[in-house]
């Protein structure tokens, strides 16, 4: 075990996030430089100075019509009873739209109102008023007028007025140069061969992309090992070359977390630890007048900390305001516990069900990047709050467009691989509609329908007595709810086994006898109910099963575990075994059905869902996987429907 | 005058915009191609197929702590009274965060809870539960799980899960290739020497930038002359090489508007003219199965038509939904007249004054690009509506972030060049605060304060009787309003004359006597009031002044006119003459003051405005221009203040 003299300096504060930010901003001495860019190449850039028009637009009196240019005064007596004849190049000239109207002409008559008598003469029967149908000099842009103030961010239309006024180069603020330093002995490049104990470095790339998006110029350093001297040398060099330095991981207080000590040796540390969950192990310091931000290794913490501390620096550098996200009032589907004395940032799924926005928390683990990928919103629990009760309302920051959330089908319940295909097919058919699925098991899915939190639940609940699926459960648990059970498919459940079945398992008894490591599913999952029934039927107890308490949340989760352990076995569906290259021994055919609110089933989206399910393309895709049989045009079963005969 | 056989085919419909769009979409046969990209290089791209994880993350059981990996079962008896000793590499191994926890170990104990007796032996006094402090295989991502559905747009965080799951390349929809063809004899490249009758081609560059922003791959063609055969050849070639073709101008029904005829000869025209103002002369057709959109020449019409027709095609091609803008309910500061039978698109300024969003229309001229640059929102008047009355509420599409609008200082009234400097300085000091100025003249500015539509008005209203500025007007017109008059600056008004003063004008009488072309200001402008007073004092009538009826809306506008005409003269401020290189003969020193609502004057923003005005930097800048003297720390004058003693 590595120990060293840095070990004893461990400390981690719980500094309020905004206090840490304001302190950081006070220390920030941006060295802004002005860069002159071609206007055509300036989209998204920030003006360093106000910009004034170099030329008027139009820069001459321009005809706004096809017609003739005249001297208005000479036309005043024209009348139907008193036509006036005009001589070409003396009394008038022909002009097309955009042509110059030269002095002394001061009005344009539309060609439709001109009688052309011959090549040289025209006749008019209406007077022209001075300056009619003329775009005067500077109608759009007047030379020397301020087009944009300092700080303006260039949009496509702005390039139009820049070019039109012949303002061909503009001064913009040079992008802040941000060096990103990934550190860690366990890190390897994405293309390298992977090995246990090694993790792919991906935070750096994500950070670089965020920094670009916010207007910075990121440079991703090579991976640096957890060696104090290497980290020190890299930090020093980066601080000399960069406007901001982001160092990823090593920001906690473990034995190899050298970052804070290195910054202290080279400069100054303002903050080590902010009062947030996740995201606590943040370091803010300074080397050579350059701000150094140490952000946590776990991806969710890393990206949140980046937004809290690095984005404000970039905005400060560019002198633009920080963009704010839309807030949305949501009803909470579950109780959410906060951390006293710290802000909690909870990634939330939001569904629009029965006219209300219902939000449920995703995984709170700081290492679960998918929780951020899947999140529709972010719930921030202030440090003084213990959290929220189920059913309470709260404001969440939206991470996705409201439209998208409003059009999502909230799918909850048991996990089946076909749901992903369904989601993709739905999006193909109606791009504004997407399926937002969360895997909580059949029973919890049914409860979500009961509570009005979801549109559709995938369930496969076997009643051990009647040996039927789903119906008895709905009768028992959803006595008052108008719901529809749509028979979706039959699928094969069976033993998931390492390739070649090294333990030679064929039955439940073999699992006990061969001391296999069983990988179980969470409580309420249909597959767990099936396994428990199998145990009861064999008169075995849970204590006889090694690993009974080890719970996974999906078939693929179980399959992945089995794949990683020669002694493991799980119960799951055939396609999970197939996609992981496992052996499979069928145990039962089960019904996996879709439970929907009646409202949803009868809605436009509901109809579309059924259409996709019954489409030849979808059926072929699903049955092509193997282990599936989709119900063809089944009769939906209505429960508790008040209008039913 | 050019005439030709196309002339007689003129027609322009008034087809409803959505009808034209839906018809176009029906004819669109996108030839989508799939492009495999490196995940690291895929920001903003649209997935052509669902993407599944190639590997789990973590892909091994990983320690979540620094500590020792143990077999949980062997620790169950540990207790403070019963410490257990474990042998290294037999009963435990050391692990750091991220290290693999190999079989048979199934739990991690944090290093803080381990007593290290010697190199080979540790002691523990607490049992470990199975799988504690272990990130199981697939905690974040399970191999084969669907990461994203088809149609998903890649964000920075998504690249994280792609790399983490070793999904290093992904299938995206190749960007639609859009050729943009600028046409017109009057067009020249931005760098070329300019001449009267020539206009800089800028629409094409703007269009290309919009198309990039929307996810297309634009290609800007060289400028094509108004020659039928050239246009035809270019259209034909573009239709063969592109997914979409945009041709700019020539879409109307003038003598050189060949576009519609060329499309008809090569293919088919669906629409010529949509029921919108501006934006009517749109052509939608098809050549070689490629949709051709002819958009109007006037920039505002062009960009609106682009959004109505080209953006939907790009979204359709990419199979993503069209982004929608936020809507905001505003109170209308003026009556706005609609066109029966057509949709009107009115560019609006929106200010947040006294707790209400007040919106006023900008120029409705289709050629005024600045109206789109300056617009905060877009008011769409439906074809069945005649418009809105002043004070009515209407929904507008927001073109700027709501925050920005909320923080803007609405400045209205007379134009002075220092207001632009003030705006830029304000933005520098407080980047979320900007000054939104519109030049309507002193009187109209005062009225806007009265109606609660603005925070600040710049006024310079000379009372001919008392020879004082502003005060008598406020007493007369704002009898009940609590306002503050802040003495801002004195400035020189005088005659603006062509360089060298060719007409040898020195006095008002010279203007009449030399038959100079006078360039006037609009009614209610302080400068116009001054001119009228000068006329009265000289006992001259308006009929004696050539050009009295020719009105410009700003000093720069007047100066630009004078610059373009050797016989012109105007009344205006010194800096306008200076910036345009004109001669200047002083006529009077006038007071240009700031009229504010009391609420605004006493607000945070108001204080900040005064601070900027009185800052050394601002004063030096303004007085450096010449012709200005800023009032140093003047006493503000309160009117109608209820709390005043």
UniProtKB/TrEMBL annotation, chains A, B:
Lineage: Bacteria, Bacillati, Bacillota, Bacilli, Bacillales
GO biological process terms, semicolon-separated: Mo-molybdopterin cofactor biosynthetic process
Presence of keyword Coiled coil: no
Protein family membership: Belongs to the MoeA family.
GO cellular component: cytosol
Residue ranges of every copy of the MoaB/Mog domain listed in the record: 179-316
Function: Catalyzes the insertion of molybdate into adenylated molybdopterin with the concomitant release of AMP. May be involved in the biosynthesis of molybdopterin.
Entry's Gene Ontology molecular function annotations: metal ion binding; molybdopterin molybdotransferase activity
Listed PROSITE patterns: MOCF_BIOSYNTHESIS_2
Cofactor(s) of this protein: Mg(2+)
Keyword annotations from UniProtKB, A to Z: Magnesium, Metal-binding, Molybdenum, Molybdenum cofactor biosynthesis, Transferase
SUPFAM superfamilies: MoeA C-terminal domain-like (SSF63867), MoeA N-terminal region -like (SSF63882), Molybdenum cofactor biosynthesis proteins (SSF53218), Periplasmic binding protein-like II (SSF53850)
Pathway given in the UniProt record: Cofactor biosynthesis; molybdopterin biosynthesis
Annotated organism of origin: Cytobacillus dafuensis (Bacillus dafuensis)
Keyword flag Transport: no
Catalytic activity, as annotated: adenylyl-molybdopterin + molybdate = Mo-molybdopterin + AMP + H(+)
Name of the molecule in the record: Molybdopterin molybdenumtransferase
InterPro entries xrefs: MoaB/Mog-like_dom_sf, MoaB/Mog_dom, MoCF_biosynth_CS, MoeA-like, MoeA_C_domain_IV, MoeA_C_domain_IV_sf, MoeA_linker/N, MoeA_linker/N_sf
One Pfam short name: PBP_like
This enzyme's EC code(s): 2.10.1.1
């Amino acid at each position: 075990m590595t120990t060293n003299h840095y070990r004893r300096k461990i400390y981690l504060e719980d500094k309020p996030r905004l206090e840490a930010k304001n302190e950081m901003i006070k220390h920030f001495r941006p060295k802004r430089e002005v860069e002159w860019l071609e206007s055509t190449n300036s989209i998204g850039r920030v003006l360093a100075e106000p910009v004034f028009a170099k030329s008027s637009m139009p820069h001459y009196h321009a005809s706004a019509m096809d017609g003739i240019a005249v001297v208005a005064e000479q036309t005043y007596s024209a009348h139907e009873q008193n036509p006036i004849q005009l001589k070409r190049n003396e009394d008038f000239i022909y002009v097309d739209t955009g042509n110059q109207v030269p002095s002394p002409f001061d009005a344009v008559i539309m060609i439709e109102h001109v009688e052309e008598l011959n090549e040289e003469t025209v006749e008019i029967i209406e007077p022209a008023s001075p300056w009619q149908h003329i775009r005067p000099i500077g109608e759009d842009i007047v030379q020397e007028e301020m087009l944009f103030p300092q700080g303006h961010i260039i949009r496509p239309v702005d390039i139009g007025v820049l070019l039109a006024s012949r303002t061909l180069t503009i001064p913009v603020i040079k992008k802040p140069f941000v060096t990103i330093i990934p550190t860690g002995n366990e890190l390897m490049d994405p293309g390298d061969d992977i090995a246990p104990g090694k993790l792919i470095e991906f935070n750096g790339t994500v950070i670089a992309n965020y920094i670009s998006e916010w207007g910075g110029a990121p440079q991703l350093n090579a991976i640096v090992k957890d060696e104090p001297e290497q980290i020190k040398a890299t930090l020093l060099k980066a601080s000399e070359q960069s406007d901001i330095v982001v160092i990823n991981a090593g920001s906690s207080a473990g034995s190899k977390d050298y970052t804070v000590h290195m910054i202290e040796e080279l400069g100054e540390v303002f903050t080590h630890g902010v009062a947030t969950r996740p995201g606590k192990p943040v370091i803010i310091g300074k080397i050579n007048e350059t701000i150094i931000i140490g952000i946590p290794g776990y991806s969710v913490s890393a990206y949140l900390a980046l937004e809290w501390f690095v984005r404000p620096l970039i905005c400060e550098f560019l002198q633009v305001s920080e963009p704010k996200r839309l807030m949305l009032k949501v009803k909470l589907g579950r109780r959410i516990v906060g951390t006293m004395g710290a802000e909690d940032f909870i990634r939330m799924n939001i569904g629009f069900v029965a006219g209300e926005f219902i939000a449920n928390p995703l995984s709170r683990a700081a290492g679960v990047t998918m929780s951020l990928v899947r999140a529709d919103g972010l719930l921030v629990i202030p440090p003084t709050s213990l959290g929220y009760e189920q059913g309470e309302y709260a404001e969440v920051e939206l991470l996705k467009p409201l439209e998208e959330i409003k059009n999502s089908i909230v799918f909850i319940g048991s996990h089946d691989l076909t749901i992903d295909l369904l989601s993709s097919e739905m999006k193909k058919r109606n791009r504004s509609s997407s399926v937002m699925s969360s895997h909580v098991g059949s029973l919890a899915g049914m409860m979500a329908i009961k509570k009005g939190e979801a549109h559709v639940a995938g369930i496969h609940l076997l009643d051990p007595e009647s040996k039927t699926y789903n119906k008895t459960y709905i009768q028992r648990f959803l006595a008052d709810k108008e719901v529809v059970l749509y028979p979706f498919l039959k699928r094969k459940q069976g033993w998931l086994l390492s390739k070649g079945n090294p333990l030679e398992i064929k039955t439940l008894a073999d699992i006990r006898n061969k001391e296999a490591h069983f990988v179980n599913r969470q409580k309420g999952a249909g597959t767990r109910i099936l396994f428990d029934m199998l145990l009861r039927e064999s008169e075995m107890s849970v204590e006889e099963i090694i690993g009974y308490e080890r719970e996974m949340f999906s078939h693929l989760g179980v399959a992945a575990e089995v794949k990683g352990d020669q002694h493991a076995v799980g119960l799951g569906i055939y396609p999970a075994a197939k996609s992981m290259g496992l052996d499979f021994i069928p145990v039962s055919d089960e019904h996996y059905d879709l439970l929907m609110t009646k409202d949803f089933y009868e809605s436009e989206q509901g109809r579309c869902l059924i259409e996709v399910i019954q489409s030849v393309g979808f059926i072929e895709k699903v049955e092509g996987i193997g282990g599936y049989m989709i119900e063809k045009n089944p009769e939906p079963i209505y429960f508790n429907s008040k209008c039913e005969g």
